[in-house]
């Protein structure tokens, strides 16, 4: 039997319709005349997947045969967003599909709306991983993304009486047509037990792990298509299942119920994404998740992607594992264990290999966000890994003591294992010691990482530290999300920008062209109209026409300062109703919030309640509701972002300087023609440098000023007392005006602002409202505003994740396109 290359279905309307109907009949098992929208959607997704699969299978084969270096992206989160639109874009099938479906009496947009997005991430970090794998596929670079197939992704947010209530995200309930499960390729993962010394066949004393329980990791493959280049990479997400051995043992003991419970226990590991994105709790299940996916992934790569006789001394020539924050760092001792315990490699040789196989990206500056695992928990769950970590630490500290004789304080500061407040492993230190490179995600963040978070390490290994400023994929966030703008850009400078975003610079001269500016405003107006339609249908929210659209979308966190945004709204409102300003002089604005709070984050939830209360009161206030509207659609996610960002006039990036590692929403807004009001923080700094001071509305303290104020002692109550505008805004919030006279309801938030205000919202308030006054003034001149907005687009091509990926490839991964 001659087996040729895998062939994709024909790229024609006829070819598509045949394939689609075949899939509907034989894949889904229904007649077209009886198919539900979901049946049609699933059949369409599977059909489009067929077009991609041919390239995927061929590409995988050529890659393995070529023996090139692969990027192994290790991330506990991938916030992918909907797949159908992206797959149609990548394959160039959109028009064919639209026409083909129409001939079957089916509307493509209806099917697209049917897709539930896989929300397997919390926010920025997970979305960044999704952008990166998109860019690597588009750059034709072989990459395997490794992660967890959570059965429940980030919770679905609802509001009940203005308060956040979480609902489970049952994203798999209607089936998941984009995944390819491979139960036959399951990998065993061990946990628990003890370690012991033994003497091997050569008479060498060694240590080994005697685990006490295990689970299976079942791989689910997802295709990651490049844009119009035929490359399709793999995202491999692991799902936990009970092992047969495990089952049998208990079933044989006769305790049926206990056996079923044990099965559930195993499957719990990939059950749910932890919804905390900044203040991780040291939960044992979370550690199980981390080790689970990392152990599966390393084994998968070494045993299934490399030839059977591969010499693991050469591993660094074939893989670089990028650690997306510390979540996968347990991979470091796991690789050591595979090399030393299982493959009997000499410790020093194994360590040399390991140090070339990993690189670490840090995504935070908040001390409470740095992961630390108690040794007690590690000893119980991964006893051999704990020993290996101790041994790594011993070797490392020996080196430090040699380099700095007598400086015992330094050795203690740098120790991977700390004793306070309890004996624990500092995962960021382990990642830094093991990684070939350590990077931050924006210039300022990388600088602060060197100076404040890991100063001893950057002094010891200056060349290890580097910066790669984040980026976003222009395919999803411009080409797909903003078709109105895409058409205008294409007509003006051609289509090359989609894979070469620096070419947006060619738009710069058009900023001076009144006709182009008018068309740009038409694009914004059309996008606002599209958003208005969506919000009415989705949330029953009515967006007024002709308002400045002011948008703040991101996770709810005190350092991001949604409460400061609220104070600005309150202050404007208060000044109108008290008669301090003439309503005729107010720029009509709609404020849109989108934000999920971690379910256990008290103050974040109070802030959500306050925003909703203000939104409701303002909506009912006839004196102001034609001028000020607050909209807070629940459950902000990638799908909503794709509609919101293109409609925005103003992007709120107002974190306290020195706290937001980078931000990536800031980039998406600028690229879609919004102006930024922002602090000198994260990637805002680079946005401002690129677009120019005139085209960015800067306010607030700089990071050194923040450090200085905190050192002097900060007293928010004194700021409140000394600023009458601020005082009136806070007093109004505390007065019960927004809570039907109930003053207690706002108490937690008000008290925190007055007597704690950890992130200096009151200190930056005055500067913020002055900057907002400048926004009003600017917006009053539509031509001046659109000129600046267009310059933002023309000057921010740098923020393509294609550029980020090129920097990782050249400076960190030393890997190449195929
Ligand atoms: C860790 C341990 C246990 C439970 C949860 C976690 C956890 C999960 C998610 C800790 C952190 C996160 C997410 C962090 C994150 O999204 N950081 C953001 O990363 C973006 C991409 O680099 C940056 O742009 C943002 O500035 C940064 O906040």
Automatic annotation (TrEMBL):
Record's catalysed reaction(s): [(1->4)-alpha-D-glucosyl](n) + phosphate = [(1->4)-alpha-D-glucosyl](n-1) + alpha-D-glucose 1-phosphate
EC numbers for this chain: 2.4.1.1
GO molecular function, one term: glycogen phosphorylase activity
GO annotations of cellular component type: cytoplasm
Cofactor(s) named in the record: pyridoxal 5'-phosphate
Domain of life: Bacteria
Enzyme class per UniProt: transferase
InterPro entries: Glycg_phsphrylas, Glyco_trans_35, Pyridoxal_P_attach_site
Residue numbers bearing the N6-(pyridoxal phosphate)lysine modification: 668
One BP annotation, GO: glycogen catabolic process
Matches recorded under Gene3D superfamilies: Glycogen Phosphorylase B
Any Pfam family hit: Phosphorylase
Keywords: Carbohydrate metabolism, Glycosyltransferase, Pyridoxal phosphate, Transferase
Protein purpose: Allosteric enzyme that catalyzes the rate-limiting step in glycogen catabolism, the phosphorolytic cleavage of glycogen to produce glucose-1-phosphate, and plays a central role in maintaining cellular and organismal glucose homeostasis. Phosphorylase is an important allosteric enzyme in carbohydrate metabolism. Enzymes from different sources differ in their regulatory mechanisms and in their natural substrates. However, all known phosphorylases share catalytic and structural properties.
Family: Belongs to the glycogen phosphorylase family.
Protein name: Alpha-1,4 glucan phosphorylase
Species for this entry: Nostocoides jenkinsii Ben 74
